[in-house]
Amino acid sequence: MAASKKAVLGPLVGAVDQGTSSTRFLVFNSKTAELLSHHQVEIKQEFPREGWVEQDPKEILHSVYECIEKTCEKLGQLNIDISNIKAIGVSNQRETTVVWDKITGEPLYNAVVWLDLRTQSTVESLSKRIPGNNNFVKSKTGLPLSTYFSAVKLRWLLDNVRKVQKAVEEKRALFGTIDSWLIWSLTGGVNGGVHCTDVTNASRTMLFNIHSLEWDKQLCEFFGIPMEILPNVRSSSEIYGLMKISHSLKAGALEGVPISGCLGDQSAALVGQMCFQIGQAKNTYGTGCFLLCNTGHKCVFSDHGLLTTVAYKLGRDKPVYYALEGSVAIAGAVIRWLRDNLGIIKTSEEIEKLAKEVGTSYGCYFVPAFSGLYAPYWEPSARGIICGLTQFTNKCHIAFAALEAVCFQTREILDAMNRDCGIPLSHLQVDGGMTSNKILMQLQADILYIPVVKPSMPETTALGAAMAAGAAEGVGVWSLEPEDLSAVTMERFEPQINAEESEIRYSTWKKAVMKSMGWVTTQSPESGIP
């Protein structure tokens, strides 16, 4: 039985998708891009102080092991031979910062998550040192100086955590974003683990020159980062090392499988949506919302609050592609907040039911600026507000307003993208966990006033990582030639309200955004550690 099954399926590719709120491992058929099996585990976020967001790097690693193990068990139940898994790709939440000890393999502090705001005063003191007429940080990295990126988080760890300082002095410290921590651990850790990252993840650290594609000495000096703790930068599709898993793992069956794809989650989704042509774009609805548009081989700098970032480089000798990115900090996170902090829903899926009951926010607007505002404002002083409340407002209206907020924020970054590119998008390709919410998708089409198009297999982030891994030199089981890419079935949502109503709602949203700004004056609960 198993033997005949094996012949039918051909080579498989696995993908680790380590997101902000959960970890998954997924296995695809490399010839048809069909998802065969997967397993998902939610990750704890810790909020030790207001504005601080941390995760335990060991919990993240164990969640990866657990997902691999459970997926392999599920494949076994389907009579699929896991020795057919020929490569593994990694996709990850970007910017989140880990420093660990290469001798013991232990993290020296919790992972400081991209959403974390503790570095605001670090950002303010650094920005005073950038000459007004020569913003070398932005011109080299494509990024605004913000709490969002890794360099300031690493600076904070070096300034405030004695264990990190000591390990750096004793040359035991390694820094990495989540991809580096996972690849190092999965390729053996203290026993010869490979310390590397790819160009897309490196481009989110603020230490990487996106033109020369290497760590930048001037930037490392500016942030005071010792270059020897940085990982080696590789392309997004090449063999980094082989799986070498500790004996504790039942998934030892994957021992020796190459890890050969690595992309930051938003780049992975761009690849998974097959946005390989200039001007193709996708919007991913995860913890945050990220709209990326492929700008080809040239860096396009935004005049409207978007980032310039590395989209992908699919092979050592392949050209690099760039993207413009609109980043929204809080999308799915607002649903998790309604669930965990307010308790008005028990599961994230329930939000659709509440919103459906009222079908309108009834004049209530929710600006979820929990981590300040990202694109297009880059306003760290903003905080979340719910306004337009009356005695009539109930939890259903707030649920509806939360979904609308995700759509309005997407409209703001889409408008910025259209202004920067000059060619308005005729439709929006979407993916990510929230896209299973039909009310959200219809609202999004109404608020953008263009069709929203969603692939029937929403796991495009994992698919992108699998494609990069399977296409790598030395693996070669996944063809990225346009004629070989499998056609994807899509679901379309057409706008159903009139344009005028859409505009009125959007301009009221903008009024609400203005009210959320200037809320916080610099406070510095930064120094010292709880």
From TrEMBL:
A single MF term (Gene Ontology): ATP binding
Pathway(s) where this gene product acts:
Polyol metabolism; glycerol degradation via glycerol kinase pathway; sn-glycerol 3-phosphate from glycerol: step 1/1
In short, the EC number is 2.7.1.30
Cellular component (GO) terms are: mitochondrial outer membrane
Give compartment(s): Cytoplasm; Mitochondrion outer membrane
> Which BP terms from GO are recorded?
glycerol catabolic process; glycerol-3-phosphate biosynthetic process; triglyceride metabolic process
Pfam families according to UniProt: FGGY_C (PF02782), FGGY_N (PF00370)
Question: What Gene3D superfamilies does the record point to?
Answer: 3.30.420.40
Sequence ranges assigned to domain Carbohydrate kinase FGGY N-terminal in this UniProt record:
13-272
Which top-level enzyme class is recorded in the Swiss-Prot or TrEMBL entry? transferase
Q: Which residues form the Carbohydrate kinase FGGY C-terminal domain?
A: 282-472
Q: Which domain of life is it from?
A: Eukaryota
Q: Which family does it belong to?
A: Belongs to the FGGY kinase family.
- This chain belongs to which protein, by name? glycerol kinase
